[in-house]
Specification:
There is one protein chain. With 197 residues, the chain is α+β, with helices and mostly antiparallel strands. It folds into two domains: 11-30 and 110-186, Probable tRNA modification gtpase trme, domain 1 (Gyrase A, domain 2), CATH 3.30.1360; 33-106, Alpha-Beta Plaits. The protein has helices at residues 14-19, 44-50, 86-97, 121-126, 174-185, and strands spanning 25-28, 33-38, 61-63, 68-73, 76-81, 103-106, 111-117, 143-148, 151-157, 164-170. Strands 1-7-10-9-8 form a five-stranded antiparallel β-sheet. It is globular, with a radius of gyration of 18 Å. It comes from Geodermatophilus poikilotrophus.
């Protein structure tokens, strides 16, 4: 049987992303394993079982060593791993939370990550996002489920200076959002973008 080549849904946008100036950088994040965790009670027992303290403050995320733990709701989190396969992460997390009455579901194919860096990133995001992105309010460790250019996203702040964010968007909206971000960034670049897709 022939080997199937894994192609990123945003492969056709990479050249345009690479032409953007340093003031607005967009890069496609590599594939990562992602598990949606549902757990009613979070405490020392859950932290010990998972090997990570899940964030309990609304709209926050924490690094986990090999990924991130993102608060989605009072009983829901996204856990990511750059070193485990989706199957390995799901099995490990499920084994940890099942005895505590929780659940774990692999959602690795559900979202695409885009990293936005540079001095004008907040300006680009503000064109299509109504939340306050000022670093005093949305600094490192902040997250939000919001809309960006009418696409539902999870937005993560990676720095306290508003110049480094990750946008998690559903795979089916990734192309639309990539086009939207390129259009929003045009104001800050003199380089023509092709949009040959």
């Amino acid at each position: 049987m022939a080997e199937l080549l894994r192609t990123h849904p945003l492969e056709a946008w990479r050249a345009d992303f690479e032409r953007l100036p340093g003031t607005v950088g967009i890069t496609v994040e590599p594939y990562v394993a992602v598990v949606d965790v549902r757990l009613g009670t979070v405490g020392a027992e859950a932290s010990a079982a998972l090997g990570v303290d899940l964030p309990t403050a609304p709209n926050t995320w924490v690094p986990t060593g090999t990924g991130r733990a993102v608060w989605l709701g009072p009983d829901e989190w996204l856990l990511t791993s750059t070193t485990e396969t989706p199957e390995e992460l799901e099995a490990r997390v499920r084994a940890a939370v099942l005895p505590l009455g929780g659940s774990a579901t692999d959602v690795s194919a559900q979202r695409i990550g885009l990293r936005l860096t540079g001095a004008r990133v907040r300006d680009v995001l503000a064109k299509g996002c109504s939340i306050d992105l000022h670093p005093r309010v949305f600094g490192r460790g902040s997250s939000a489920q919001t809309t960006l250019g009418q696409a539902g996203v999870v937005l993560l702040a990676l720095s306290d200076s508003a110049d480094d964010h990750v946008v998690l968007v559903r795979s089916s909206f990734a192309g639309y959002l990539a086009d939207w971000l390129l259009d929003a960034a045009l104001e800050f670049t003199s380089v023509p973008l092709t949009h040959d897709r």
